Each structure stands twice: as C-alpha cells, then as structure tokens.
Amino acid sequence: MDSQHSQRKNEHISLSEKFYNEYSTADFEKIRFIHHSLPEISAQSISMDTKLGNIELKCPFYIEAMTGGSKLAGELNEKLSKIAQECNLAIASGSESIAIKDYKTANSFANLRKYNPNGIVFANIGANHPVENAKKAIDILNADALEIHINAVQEIVMPEGSRNFHWIENIAKIVNAVNVPIIIKEVGFGMDKSTIKTLQEIGVKYINISGRGGTNFVNIENFRRKNKELNYLNGWGQSTVESLLEAYEYHNEINIIASGGIRNALDIVKCFALGAKAVGVAGPILHSLIKNGETETIEMIKEWQQGIISIMTILGCKKIEDLKNQKLLLDLNLQNYVNQRNIK
Ligand code: FNR
C-alpha cells in the first residue's frame, strides 16, 4: 500500500498528464534565426557530443527530473531509464526526499541506475536537506551529478508545502561538501539575473533555469487543494526564453541548463543559441510514454535528435557550441522584456 507521500508522487504523474498542453508556450516562437543560403556543410560532419561543464553528453538534451517513491513511479523510472540508455540520453531523478525518509522506496529511484548502468544519472533533492542527505541521494543512484531543486512557488501552492525558504547558506554547504557537480534547479518558474548572481557568489557552477511554459506546478498543486483558490498564480514566473536571456551575461562562467516547455528540436537548438550548455525535457517525454508507450517515445526522441542535426546543417554549425554564435531576431514583445530588464 502506497504511503501518503507516495500518493503525492502518483498524483504529480496523473496531474501533469491531465494538464499537459502541447500548445503551451515558453516563448520560443518569439525568437528566430537569420537564414543564410550557403551553409557549406554536410550533415555527416555534424556532432551532437557536447560538454556540460565536466560532464560529457552524447546527446545535448536529457530526461529531466520527474519521479520515484511509489510503485507506479518505480515502473516509470524503469521505462525512462531504458529509453535513456537506448537513446544515449542522460537522465535526472525525481526528488529523493521520500527515499531518505522511507528507505523502502529507494529502489524506485535506483531503477534509474539498475536499467541504465553506464549512463549519466543526476540525483535530485530539495534545498533544505543537510549535506548528509545530499550524499545519500547521490549514493542511491551512484549519480554523476546532484540537482538541488528550488521550488518556492510549488511549495506555497502545495497544501502540505513548506513555508520556510532560507536556502542560500544550506546550498553553499552542500556545494562545498559534495564531490560531484551540483546543479541548482527551478521547477518551471524560471530565474532572474539576481538569483543567478547570488548562486554564483556562493560557488554554484551549474544552474537549470527551468522556466515557465511547460509543466505548471501551480495547476498541479492547486488541483490538489480543497479550495482551489491559488489558481491566479498560474502565469507566475519567467518563461524559459526570458530566463535564458536573464542568464545570458553569465553563460561563459556558469553552465546554464534550459528546461521548461521544450516541444521540439528547434526549441532545443534555440536554447543553445541563447547560451545553454544542455537542455532538460520532462513533461513531453512522460506524456509520450504514458500515451504512446516506450517504442514510440524512443522514436520521438530519435526524431528530435535527427531534427537537431537537420537544423544545425541549415545553420552551418558543426558542433553544438557553434550555435551560440548564431544571430537571433527577437519579436517586439521579447525586445520589450530585454529593454525593461536591461539585458545586454
Ligand atoms: C517534475 N519536476 C521535478 N523537478 C525536480 O527538480 N524534482 C522533482 O521531483 C520533480 N518532479 C516532477 C514530476 C513531474 C511529473 C513532472 C512533469 C515534473 C519538474 C521538471 O524537472 C521540470 O523542471 C519542469 O517540469 C519543466 O519542464 P517540462 O516538464 O516543461 O519539460
């Protein structure tokens, strides 16, 4: 019988599917590339290998943090890790807080390593956990990196959520004590420059800006409330594109990861043009797995990989890192954001 915490994990899965909207937007349509008619390149010469700081990725996008902690979540993690292995994708775990409270649930997370023994796996935990728990989360998965999620909006809307958000000192402790890369990660509300600056000042080198426009935890947690009164927060935060613009002045010093509302290969390529070093995809992969199954999800991911190569060919870019030199056009709305926020 699943515990109350496990029940919440199952609700996150079913509600993210209920609210999945393939037309939601993270503002990618507000930017476009300038087309050049002489690419002078052949598709075979293009490589998708890339480096996220010290982590070598065979594919520039990966399966972002979702689940673990219940029977259903364990089964999904088994399937997700097999998909990751088949497609050469890194994969991030859902929050392992539940496994630290109740070690019986650890296997549902460990599936990510069990069925994907040689892949890149990221552990995941909340920002209020002591160093000891961060180390446990890494050990459960023999993880290559640790994601620490910062999710104030989700907690506020979550009926049983935390109301204390003193995280900076604790994050600094974990960064100093742990010997795998630490990725500080939002959960779909985006980041601003000052957040990134503060994180940089305490030694953080990897940041996932996880922006608005895809999975929306206001919708998910508000649905779980008895009185559904916090729905007015469902447009809160910066979109993924706005967050990447906020992060732009840091992209040479900090490994910026994009996630939130990625819907196709062109969105992924645009993230690299905006300075990202890797791209995380959560909702669309879960949606495809639940709706269409493992085989079709593998096909979808392979199409995205092929799509990235096709776009890089048109752009004349041999390597992922070449994409950041591409010129972009912003629409008036986004240009207005850039002006008001003093983004250079
Ligand atoms: C999430 N996400 C998430 N993030 C995190 O750091 N820890 C977690 O436990 C979870 N749990 C979770 C469950 C489910 C069902 C979903 C769909 C998502 C957030 C996720 O990693 C990502 O930041 C956002 O979902 C935005 O990306 P997408 O879904 O728009 O691609």
UniProtKB/TrEMBL annotation:
Reaction catalysis annotation: isopentenyl diphosphate = dimethylallyl diphosphate
Localization annotation: Cytoplasm
Residue sites binding FMN per the record: 65-67, 95, 124, 185, 210, 215, 261-263, 282-283
Domain FMN-dependent dehydrogenase residues, every copy: 157-327
Enzyme class: isomerase
SUPFAM superfamilies hit by this protein: FMN-linked oxidoreductases (SSF51395)
EC number per UniProt: 5.3.3.2
Predominant place of localization: cytoplasm
Record: residues binding substrate: 8-9, 154
UniProt cross-references to NCBIfam families, sorted A to Z: IPP_isom_2 (TIGR02151)
Protein family per UniProt: Belongs to the IPP isomerase type 2 family.
Function: Involved in the biosynthesis of isoprenoids. Catalyzes the 1,3-allylic rearrangement of the homoallylic substrate isopentenyl (IPP) to its allylic isomer, dimethylallyl diphosphate (DMAPP).
Protein name in the entry: Isopentenyl-diphosphate delta-isomerase
Organism: Apilactobacillus xinyiensis
Phylogenetic placement of the source organism: Bacteria, Bacillati, Bacillota, Bacilli, Lactobacillales
